[in-house]
Each structure stands twice: as structure tokens, then as C-alpha cells.
């Protein structure tokens, strides 16, 4: 059973991905707005009827509704899957699990996207304190490079 809290997390993640790659900032804002409204709903179960009700909120448009229904039906949002195949696994994990803002993720992505996995992790390790990255995240990133 999917709850709106879970769906909100997916839209927040999608907003960070959009910001990271420098896509349309209005998309990120829309996804973040949708996430905030979904967090307000919280523990309520996501159903088709509940998504239709959500669509009545000004600012929740067709794209958010479609993505919500995708998540309800498949457990995935296709756009997130597209990002996963587009960006390095290191950046995908950073966007999902590090807590870094979209703005910081974008700066790192622009600067480091053409480097190999080990080089990216090495630079992130050097900036660990500045970026407030935990040792656990850095280890997980390094493990991605050895897979």
C-alpha cells in the first residue's frame, strides 16, 4: 500500500534530479510543490480517486497526476528511471541519499560529470567536510565504483 508520504519523497527526489542536471527550474518547483502538498496529506493511501482529488489543487497539473498514477501502478516513476540511466550512479545516489540541495548537486554535476567514478568519489572525499558528506555515503559511493 502506497502512502502519500512515500509519493512525496519520490517527487522531492525528482526535483533534486531535475535541479542537478540543470533542467527546467519550473519543473523542479512544481515537483517540490507537489511533494509539499502530498506531505500535508501524509499517511493517507494513494488511490486513483485520491490522485484525482489531488489534481484539484491549483498548481498540481497533468504531469504530476500522470507520475503519481505511474507510481501507484508500477512502484516507479518513469522520469526517475530515465535519470537513472542518464547520470552516473554516483550522482543518482547522491541525489537520492545525501541530503545535498539541488543547487549544490548541480554545481557538482557540472564540475564532475565527465570524470570517472573513482575520480568523482576522490574529489567528494576531499570535500567531505565542506559538503557534510557522511563516511557511510562515501563508502556506498566507493562501492558503486567497484561493482
Q: Could you outline the blueprint of secondary structure elements for this entry?
A:
Blueprint: H1 4-21, H2 25-41, H3 48-54, H4 62-74, H5 78-86, H6 89-97, H7 102-112, H8 117-126, H9 128-131, H10 135-146
Helix pairs in contact: 1-2, 1-7, 3-4, 6-10, 8-10
Query: What is the arithmetic mean of pLDDT?
Result: 94
Number of strands: 0
Helix content: over 70%
Low-confidence parts lasting 5 or more residues at pLDDT below 50? none
For the biggest sheet, the summary is: none
Gross CATH architecture of the largest domain:
Orthogonal Bundle
What is the number of domains? Answer: 2
> What would you report as the Rg, rounded to the nearest angstrom?
16 Å
What fraction of residues sit in β-strands?
A: under 5%
CATH class of the largest domain: Mainly Alpha
Q: What features would you describe in this structure?
A:
The protein contains ten helices and no strands. It folds into two domains: 4-82, DNA polymerase beta, N-terminal domain-like (DNA polymerase, domain 1, Orthogonal Bundle); 87-146, no CATH class. It has helices spanning 4-21, 25-41, 48-54, 62-74, 78-86, 89-97, 102-112, 117-126, 128-131, 135-146. The model has no long low-confidence stretch (mean pLDDT 94). Helices cover 75% and strands 0% of the residues. The protein is mainly α and 147 residues long. Helix 6 packs antiparallel against helix 10 (135-146) and helix 8 packs antiparallel against helix 10 (135-146).
Amino acid at each position: 500500500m502506497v502512502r502519500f508520504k512515500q509519493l512525496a519523497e519520490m517527487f522531492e527526489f525528482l526535483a533534486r534530479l531535475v535541479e542537478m542536471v540543470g533542467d527546467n527550474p519550473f519543473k523542479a518547483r512544481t515537483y517540490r510543490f507537489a511533494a509539499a502538498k502530498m506531505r500535508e496529506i501524509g499517511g493517507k493511501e494513494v488511490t486513483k480517486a485520491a490522485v484525482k482529488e489531488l489534481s484539484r489543487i491549483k498548481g498540481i497539473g497533468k504531469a504530476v497526476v500522470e507520475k503519481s498514477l505511474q507510481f501507484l501502478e508500477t512502484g516507479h516513476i518513469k522520469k526517475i528511471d530515465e535519470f537513472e540511466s542518464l547520470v552516473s550512479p554516483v550522482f543518482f545516489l547522491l541525489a537520492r541519499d545525501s541530503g545535498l540541495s539541488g543547487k549544490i548537486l548541480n554545481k557538482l554535476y557540472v564540475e564532475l560529470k565527465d570524470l570517472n567514478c573513482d575520480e568523482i568519489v576522490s574529489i567528494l572525499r576531499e570535500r567531505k567536510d565542506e559538503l557534510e558528506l557522511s563516511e557511510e555515503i562515501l563508502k556506498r559511493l566507493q562501492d558503486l565504483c567497484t561493482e
